[in-house]
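Tutorial handout. Part one gives the primary structure; part two gives the three-dimensional structure as tokens.
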Amino acid sequence: MKVSRPARIRATIHVPPDKSISHRALIFNAVATGRATVEHILDSDDVRSTARCLAALGVPIDWPEGSAVAHVTGQGLHGLFEAEDVLDCGNSGTTMRLLLGLLAGHPILSVLTGDRSLRSRPMARVIQPLRTMGAHLAARRGDTLAPVVIKGGSLRGIAYQSPVASAQVKSAILLAGLYAEGETAVAEPSRSRDHTERLLTAMGAPLTSDGLTVRVRPADRLSAVSVRVPGDISSAAPWMVLGVCHPDAEIVLEGVNVNPTRTGILDILRAMGADLELVEERTSGGEPVADIVVRSSQLRATSVGGELVPRAIDELPLVALAACFAEGTTVVRDATELRVKESDRVRTVVEALGRLGAAIREREDGFEVDGPVRLRGARVHAHGDHRIGMLGAIAGCLAEGETEVLDDAVGVSYRAFWDDLRAATSGEAMAR
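Part two.
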């Protein structure tokens, strides 16, 4: 896909539904009692992978192609059946890791695999604690990589100190904890997104949070909960960076989830001096929601690290782009987790922005960017990583000349991205 810089941007964009919540609404309701409706669900490749895997496990899911509404008929905590074939999680790490936690409590044999990217991403971080709880798991490359074979059964609660702040790891262990004898506790080095805790609590799970530790006890049942999914801040982030970096822009992003465990990108952009405003703040499905208005800004460099990283992990590639337009040197550190995403995002960010003329240097745990610089159009390869695909597209809309983005894979999380980008950069106001 080819893009170039527009002279002026005025757009209103209703960003896609939150991917994390869409996954969880399907998975948790699958083992609840009752029928739930998930409105404004994200119709993306990743979430479709979750739906297909659950259907293969015997969960009736009525979700027509192209629809934003899914109906899930819960089978109860012990109602999953053994799938007749391998469960294909596609490109979705959330699907694989959360299903491993759920299947740990079921005495059935399951094999989970995915595409080439997913088969290269670390699974030991989930396999190890689930094995300690009593589940039987085996995986490729010394039990570290998918495909993963799991047979669940009698579990015991554990107190687990996670070495990384990962909502996927935390969620997998908490799901297994619903089936375990005694209490299961997960402590993290810093706070990760809490969508699992919010939704499981709403469904009646015996779950408590205390600082960086979440505890759960075995559940008798979960009650199905219908959900209206708010907009995904990770899908809003490209537009925020486009708006603050472009010299003549105003973009309104409607209905965005501003859960404080996800708003690291807002804090980072504000620290850089971005003209950014939250309006019409409200609550939807137990999650805080707001419209976000961003305008052209004079940016300054910042430093990103520590507890801010897990709150902005998917948006850090875009922080590197914003840093190209900021005065001074921006440093992103403590972000080694970027290296085990759909691509090694430290390497692919440095490669992509470097091709456009950015003064960016790779660090073991992140990157450094000098600014401001004038980006120049170039050919950018996204390596099948949707976040790098969107990064390349937004960078191309801020660069001189034409930029071509290859192997963008944006359909993984944002199927309408290219349509929205064309409309935004052509002056059309949108309200999908």
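Part three, for discussion. The CA atoms of residues 25 and 316 lie 26 Å apart. The longest strand covers residues 275-284.
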